[in-house]
Design goal:
Bound molecules: 4-nitrophenyl alpha-D-galactopyranoside
Number of strands: 43
Number of domains: 3
Structural class: alpha+beta
CATH topology of the largest domain: TIM Barrel
Largest sheet: 9 strands, antiparallel
Distance between the termini: 50 Å
Oligomer: single chain
Shape: globular
Length: about 750
């Protein structure tokens, strides 16, 4: 369906109206700039597109440009007077809530959190899972624009999509999203009472000196019938505008954090290195997470209880074993107890009383926010990261808690916004580590990192527990929260960076892990379906080797993300779909999640999945069970609590064909490198290739009047089992490469 072109009309007294004939309308829109002259707060209202206004020497022009099926909007600001001006906010558009053709309580509003861990989902305006924690800590970490009248306000960082399933109009989705994100934090605000929908850029009281000028970020407004698609298209557009870095393949690896939580010694790391080699696990990066340093800020002061010989011997062992060395830092913090803060108290952001601004509290220790507009701080960052690269050979950098650089406060450069301060810090790190090192953002405001990071954590921390243990807080560490955000931000993958859904844990339930089998499989399935970074964080030296089969089934990542089809239907999306297309066929892998704490019955239809009508074989991956053929729907009668059922849909073929393989959750998307049918001899030859050694099955469909004559694996005759009429399974141990050939015989009518 193509959406009509937007119509723009202007009523000078009221503002601009933008409407789509079969869809939404935004009425009485204006731009508003808030600033200060000395201590005086001032407001400048611009009621007409493409018009300039002037007040107190501030010249403002509201720009509108038709672009595709929408408009690009921005505000240009110049100080043409003689007095300094201090800019607070620029509303690139503010209007009453748009008209979507159905009342606001029926709406779903995509609420993007501002940093990695901040809750993100398409929020229902009635009956939401969201509860405002309302604590100062929560505000500091997740609500960069908090203000006392936050009640009833839904603030989404950089982008929002409004959608209602109740509209009578064919087009009920409206996207407002900033497509440049370098210079200003920017939010899309909706007041639930309908009084306001605003796209606001934050200028953080930055100085606009006489003669100086600037531009707000570019806002894109567009409408469409499919809100998920709007979000995907926005991500693509931002990626282009911001010159996003997209790695050729998402990294794999092992991380110390989620087993040791900072208490690992050098020997623990070496033991895991050995285990990775012994088990031949295809994990590339060895990530030394938090804990090796004596204090946040003192990155070369190594904890000698844990690393008695310092970092060098461990670093060397990792490199010698052929791995990439990864290191965690929280580069924009200085612990109150650090040598860094003692030596450079002038390097931190200060509040209005000249007190150091708290970045965050790190496991009980206050860490101040470094002023990344200070040239000495930037030089120190370059020196620190350059040394890690040169002296330790680090080529993978996880930079954490980096929202600290964007905390509000006074900085060395009075003209810098919070977004610019953060970006300057990340730029310094990128300069130091070089273009070929992998930079992973974490605890990171998303926008200003685009184009600088290769990967981004897009959710909260995973955790040994499914639900958060302490409180009901959508940002708290828990497997549930981590998965939710990773799913709701799946549209960003490969557009803004490679998504990092956080670590995969596969160890057995026990004192170090509380996930039951279904929960661990959900974590495995969702991470595998999302196709982003895939890092394990178990103690591999003591893990029950049988559990490694789960890890192997998520490796390597496909690089491509499944789509959360019901993102705008359920706050916790239940339906992930990965379409796979290869020269030898196409298939669909669906992840169907039960977020409830009780067993439910779930029906998934081809039309829910958007799969073309036809006849499909269905295979239940975790159960290793062929479910038969459908042209309609599959019902999971006992869909257990927190279970993700992985279903394969493969078009029914009239001749013998590959049905699926079980070496990877995506069922052939990574391990099947070729599949050839030779009609003249009746063979299906499947080439499998995958790092490591792993048991699995190759399933074939052999419809009558064909029948199996024999199966060969790497040229040798091999047994097979009939799992259902016309379906056979071949079990084998795949060691790097294998060729499985089905020889079929045509019986004709008898
Ligand atoms: C190391 C960890 C891991 C993890 C990061 C980050 O107190 N907090 O609110 C809090 C939030 C996140 C957090 C730790 C504490 O985790 O996401 O992968 O690197 O730091 O300390």
């Amino acid at each position: 369906m193509t959406t009509s072109q937007p119509q723009l009309s202007v009523q000078p007294s009221r503002g601009a109206t933008l409407s789509w004939s079969d869809g939404p309308a935004i009425r009485d829109a204006v731009a508003v700039v808030r600033y200060r002259v000395g201590d005086q707060p001032r407001t400048l209202r611009i009621p007409e597109p493409e018009r300039s206004c002037e007040q107190d020497g501030l010249q403002a022009r509201w720009r509108w440009e038709l672009s595709g099926n929408g408009y690009r909007l921005w505000v240009e600001l110049a100080n043409i007077g003689d007095a300094p001006l201090f800019l607070e906010t620029a509303d690139v558009l503010t209007a009453p809530a748009p008209d979507l053709g159905a009342p606001i309580p029926t709406w779903r509003v995509y609420q993007n959190g501002w940093q990695s861990w901040s809750p993100t989902f398409a929020r229902h305006l009635e009956g939401s899972i969201y509860a405002e924690p309302g604590t100062p800590e929560y505000r500091a970490a997740h609500q960069p624009h908090w203000e006392p009248d936050y009640d009833g306000l839904i603030s989404s960082e950089w982008v929002s999509v409004l959608y209602t399933p109740a509209s009578s109009r064919p087009v009920a989705g409206l996207l407002g999203g900033f497509i440049t994100t370098k210079d200003q934090l920017a939010e899309i605000r909706l007041r639930a009472d309908g009084s306001e929908w605003t796209a606001r850029c934050h200028l953080d009281t930055a100085l606009l000196a006489p003669g100086a000028s600037l531009r707000t970020e570019l806002l894109y407004l567009t409408a469409g019938p499919d809100p998920l698609k709007l979000l995907e298209e926005w991500a693509e557009m931002v990626g282009r505008e911001m010159e996003a870095r997209i790695p050729a393949a998402p990294p794999t690896g092992w991380c110390t954090w989620y087993y040791f939580y900072g208490e690992n010694t050098a020997d623990d790391v070496l033991d895991n290195l050995t285990a990775i080699a012994t088990y031949r696990l295809p994990l590339d990066v060895i990530l030394l997470d938090d804990g090796y340093q004596t204090a946040i800020g003192d990155w070369f002061s190594i904890h000698t209880d844990k690393f008695p010989d310092g970092m060098e011997p461990v670093a060397q062992a990792i490199r010698d074993a052929g791995h990439k060395l990864g290191i965690w830092t929280a580069p924009f913090g200085a612990a109150a107890t650090s040598q860094l803060f003692a030596a450079h108290p002038d390097w931190v952001v200060r509040d209005e009383h000249s007190e150091p601004v708290l970045g965050w509290v790190h496991w009980g220790v206050p860490c101040y926010a470094l002023d990344t507009t200070h040239p000495e701080v930037l030089a120190w960052l370059e020196e620190t990261f350059g040394r890690m690269r040169r002296e330790w050979g680090v080529t993978f950098f996880k930079i954490d808690f980096i929202f600290a650089a964007a905390r509000p406060g006074r900085r060395h450069d009075p003209a810098a916004t919070r977004a610019q301060a953060l970006r300057r810090g990340v730029e310094a790190i990128r300069r130091a580590i070089g273009d070929d090192a992998f930079l992973l953002g974490c605890g990171a405001p998303l926008g200003p990192c685009i184009g600088l990071v290769d990967g981004m954590r897009i959710g909260t921390d995973v955790d040994p527990n499914w639900h958060p243990i302490f409180r009901y807080d959508l940002s708290a560490a828990s497997t549930e929260n981590a998965l939710r955000n990773s799913i709701t931000r799946a549209p960003f993958h490969n557009h803004l960076w490679a998504n990092d859904p956080d670590c995969l844990l596969v160890r057995q339930r026990g004192p170090d892990l509380d996930l039951v089998l279904n929960e661990m499989r959900s974590l495995t399935a969702v991470i595998a379906l999302l196709g982003g970074l895939t890092l394990n964080s178990d103690h591999l030296a003591i893990i029950r080797p049988g559990r490694l089969k789960y890890l192997r089934q998520a490796l390597p990542p496909t690089g491509v993300s499944a789509r959360p089809l019901d993102l705008f239907t359920h706050e916790l999306p239940r339906l992930l779909l990965l379409p796979v297309e290869r020269p030898w066929g196409r298939w669909w892998v669906a992840g169907v999640i039960n977020w409830e704490d009780h067993t439910v019955e779930t029906t998934v239809s081809l039309s829910d999945l958007g799969i073309p009508p036809g006849l499909y074989h269905v295979y239940n991956y975790w159960r290793r069970r062929y479910l038969g053929v459908t042209d309609d729907a599959v019902t999971i009668r006992r869909h257990q609590p927190h279970e993700t059922v992985v279903l394969l849909f493969k078009p029914v073929s009239e001749r013998p064909d590959l049905l699926t393989t079980t070496f990877h959750v995506c069922q052939g998307a990574v391990e099947v490198t070729d599949c050839a049918w030779d009609e003249s001899v009746g063979t299906v030859r499947v080439t499998l290739s995958k790092a490591g050694r792993q048991f699995g099955e190759v399933l074939f469909s052999v419809p009558a009047p064909w029948e199996v004559a024999e199966v060969r694996v790497d040229g040798e005759r091999h047994p097979w089992a009939v799992v259902a009429p016309g379906i056979i399974s071949v079990g084998l141990t795949l060691d790097e490469r294998s060729e499985v050939t089905l020889f079929a015989r045509y019986r004709g009518e008898e």
